[in-house]
Amino acid sequence: MMRLVVIGAGMASGRMLEQLFNAGFAGEVALFNGEPRGNYNRLMLSPVLSGEKTYAEIVTHDDAWYAAHGVRCRFGEHVTKIDRERKVVVSKGGETPYDALVIATGSAPFIIPVAGKELPGVCTYRDLEDTNAMIAASRPGAKAVVIGGGLLGLEAAAGMAARGAEVTVIHLMGHLMERQLDPSAGYLLQKDLERRGIRIHCKGATKAILGTTHVEAVLLEDGTVYPADLVCMAVGIRPEVRLATDAHLEIGRGVVVDDRMRTSDPAIHALGECVEHDKQLFGLVAPLYDQAKVLAATLMGVEAAFRPVQTATKLKVTGVDLFSAGDFADAPGREDIVFRDPGRGVYKRLVLEGEKLIGAVMYGDTADGAWFFDKIKSGEEVSAIRDTLIFGPAFQGGAQADPLAAVAALPPEAEICGCNGVCKSKIVTAVQGGAVTLDAVRLQTKASASCGTCTGLVEKVMALTLGDSFTANANPPMCKCTDHTHEDVRRLIKAQGLKSIPAVMQDLGWTTVGGCASCRPALNYYLLSDWPLDYVDDRQSRFVNERNHANIQKDGTYSVVPRMWGGVTTSAELRAIADAADRYAVPMIKVTGGQRIDLLGVKKADLPAIWADFNAAGMVSGHAYAKGLRTVKTCVGSEFCRFGTQDSTGLGIRLEKLLWGSWTPAKVKLGVSGCPRNCAEATCKDIGVVCVDSGYQISVAGAAGMDVKETELLCSVPTEDEVAEVIAAFVQLYRENARYLHRIYKWVAKVGLDWCKDQIADPATRRALRDRFMQSQAVYQTDPWAELGMRPADWAPVADLTMRAAE
Amino acid sequence: MSMMIDIAALDDIPRQGARVVKTDAGCVAVFRTADDQVFAIDDRCPHKGGPLSEGIVHGTSVTCPLHAWVFDLSTGIAQGADEGAVQTYPARTEGGRVFLDASFLRRRSAA
Ligand code: SRM
Ligand SMILES: Cc1cc2nc3c(=O)[nH]c(=O)nc-3n(C[C@H](O)[C@H](O)[C@H](O)COP(=O)(O)OP(=O)(O)OC[C@H]3O[C@@H](n4cnc5c(N)ncnc54)[C@H](O)[C@@H]3O)c2cc1C
Ligand code: SF4
Ligand code: FES
Prior knowledge:
The complex is a heterodimer of chains A (807) and B (111). Chain A is of the alpha/beta class. Chain A is built from 26 helices and 39 strands. In chain A, the strands form 11 sheets. Chain A has a 5-stranded parallel sheet. A 5-stranded parallel sheet of chain A has the order 9-16-10-11-12. Chain A has a 5-stranded antiparallel sheet with strand order 21-22-25-24-23. Chain A is elongated, with a radius of gyration of 33 Å. Chain B is globular and about 40 Å long. Chains A and B meet through helix 17, strand 39 and helix 26 of A and strand 1, strand 2, strand 5 and helix 1 of B.
């Protein structure tokens, strides 16, 4: 009689044994399990954790079943060795001989190697012991930190939160469940979980787990500390291959098996999460059940071959509706169909390749998930129904995503016009009361009557209220990815509290997956300008000059221009510049039109080193090519010049030190002249200051590039301190209201100089603007050279194959 | 027979970004999309030689940093009104590493 030994009583081996007995297997079975219990439904640990089920309800095979099939249960007994020569396995109960052996040891949770990982109170999420530890720790008010925002981590977080714990999830990547979800769906998931009180910290790298006798807190690389009574590490799994490795079976990342689930030793088979088949690993049960079927056949001497099938993912958190299946990555020749219903928090994305549906990601409404999954698995042609495919099986006819949806979804109290504090319901009431033109609405409500940047939104509210009888003034949308204008997007970001690029794209109904090179930099700017404390700058959404903090040139080299405050330099700085020019073989050193020195033709790989040299000499830059403050041009002023009325040089330096580093919609240049002779050409700058006996004339909206235009007077003030306050406030007004890439003169032409004057003239408004500017500066006035230069390797080629190619 | 060369860790390349691989016949830009697809193309825009590795990556396209031509990373073909194409090379990821097809090097040095 055949002696079959099975190592591991998990999901895979349980199913395999069922199949085997159904097929009439007549041998003797010994079943070892590390856990002190038999097969149970591991998937259902999450409902046990959340309290929706008990352990008893998830047992799949009980004592009676094992007895009925003559299985000798060796639960709680680890197999420590496989002796292939003598065909025995070794455990604490001695040696057990086998004719056929099945390795079904599953996988082991990955533990990140940080200090404190062994402290009591740190657990993983794999078995009943882990689940019970989390249940015990989840008293109301207890603090739990889950490291890992994948499937397991989120189920752990939701389960503990359901029991009243305060849960924080720390996730390394930019969005949750990045292996199953794209950024849009990940964003919706995060919103849902946050609504349940779970705090989510993305892009968070764990540095250490703190505590003396028990965990007390988790420390992140960015310095954040989250107090914790329990820490659950759910960062991934690794196939449990130790036994097989020691026995010298063929191992890749898992135990290598062929189509019949045989290892490199003909007497030994393997299945489940511990195996590698055709270079692939498995982490969901569906393919494991297929493996179970195949292995049972193999053991019965019947031909069968394992072919991995597509898997679909659902998150087992009650009330969270997500679905992902197939391959939804962008790739050669693939096309997307995207549907968003911001009002209902619905996002659906289908990925087509040729005639076929190959992947689907859905959030909020997953009713059609199974239907799409079927289409993916069958590989049937879908081109004939392509136009309506995304509406699912029930669809007849041709509905379209509604461009007005984002505005329709705003609550009645949402602010539409920021200048005059007019909410949506007030406009609706006015329209219903007969104000059917924009002018009439302006007159009655004052909405869009000031700076005018909300005009598009007001029109959309009117269109929603009036229906077909409304015709709007044409203002083109921001880019081909959206129907909204720049102005609408800016106001909706504020009105809806949107704080990330995926949030904007979802809630405002973007029609492309990742935007384009035109909208992404604009959104990145709007978000960091509106939410300086919350938003994390996205370098990959920046144009090359801002990403590399140097100006790219026609041949791919860069020009480097250190800041030269107010055009004033020192012999030491000049020496450092000269040394750098020699050291990096700079082909040209040029004095710029902006009163500083430009080193042209620097190689990208040299940038970190040249920055480090300049930093060492006390110089900063990094914004020389930015949509931000460029130069403050000054003249010599009262310190030296016989006509000078005020210290224009000193004031210029002060202004440059105040404003540098502040990102703006387009570049900003200042000039400060010591008298009306205006040697610093202040009256053709974005902002110009002309010193006079009585104080300072501040004028704005000049231009001297593609257009040439003289500045217009904003106001005159008697002291330098007031100059600083007025200019900070005015720059902030520009930052908060202008469309991306509009210089100050273009923006002022749209909103009107009078409106600007009113804002600045009102002391409370002016001070609030100045305070917001300073708040943003507290975050953004940093020298990017200092930070980015720390990792010089990132600036060099990632690999050099010139040697190999020469072979 | 194609041989794949291990170029770098996937995480060496920023999402929605690129890094270059130096070869005797100029640089190859290796891109990583938001969802971890990798593509390899010549790092030279057919318009005026712009380094495509410095462009903004959106979906599976890149916009040249010099004059904003847009290329499909999978086909190398310029999109919209612009005409031209850039050479593409087989690339794939496995176990968190990025691999390029070795034969492209031979073709490149032969060219
Ligand atoms: C280096 C410099 C020329 C020089 O050798 O003096 C320069 C060089 C460039 N300018 Fe300029 N501008 C320079 C002063 C000016 C000035 C004069 C000034 O600042 O006093 C103007 C007119 C004033 C103005 O800003 O409008 C000027 C108006 C422009 C414009 C037109 C802007 C407009 O809105 O009309 C552009 C194009 C753009 O920004 O889109 C531009 C763009 C450029 C770029 C960045 C083109 C590019 O994108 O690559 C040039 C980079 C050259 C390189 O490879 O490094 N440059 N540029 C000057 C740098 C000053 C500095 O220290 O920062
Ligand atoms: C909380 C949770 C939720 C999940 N949710 C889902 C889901 O919704 N959908 C889905 O498809 N998948 C889900 N999974 C994954 C799924 O549970 C696994 O894919 C599946 O359990 C793997 O089966 P297996 O038999 O390979 O390993 P396991 O079920 O892990 O069984 C392996 C067994 O082998 C034992 N063992 C290991 N080494 C030895 C040894 N040397 N000697 C004796 N015994 C040993 C272990 O103690 C363990 O009991 C979830 C997993 C967890 C932990
Ligand atoms: S004027 Fe400015 S943008 Fe034009 S070539 Fe000269 S430096 Fe370049
Ligand atoms: S060099 Fe690429 S668009 Fe001109």
